[in-house]
Every structure is written in structure tokens, then in C-alpha cells.
Amino acid sequence: MGAEWSFLTNHARVLVCIAHDPGLRLRDIGEVLRLTERTVFGIVTDLTAAGYVVKDRDGRRNRYRIQHHLPLRQPLGREATIGELLALLVASN
User: What is the CATH number of domain 10-89?
Assistant: First the structure.
């Protein structure tokens, strides 16, 4: 069999986890995605530095807010937003 692969990058997968639960700990995201906590920390740092995620302190934990209005980094023919992508990937409750 070939190597494992995914349609989504780890950055997109972490963003989907945050969209599902903005209060998840990095350790929990890592467990769900089978990534190390250090890898998740680096990805969240990238997403925060790019402005896609805002980190808020909530007691001893962090909560994350996704900036849904921002465009994707790589246009898909027209300027789609993060919110439009997440609407496709995250089931509404």
C-alpha cells in the first residue's frame, strides 16, 4: 500500500478542531489528530501569527476565536473566506 495522505493539511485539520471546540487544549487536539502537542503548538502559533486565530486567556486555559472573514492564503479562483471553508467542513448543530 502507498503512504498515508489526506486532502487537508495539518493546519486545516487543527482549524477544524478549533471550530468544533474553541476551548480544546493543545494536548486534546493532538490526541484527536494523532499529532504531538509540540506540532499542534507550532500550527496554532502559525495560525495566530497569520491572524486566522485569536487566542484569549480563560483562567488557566486558552480559548480560540477563528477570524471567519479572512480570505484563504491560496485563492481558489475567487477570494473565499475561512468561514466559507469551515462551513463546508464543520457540521452545524
Answer: 1.10.10.10
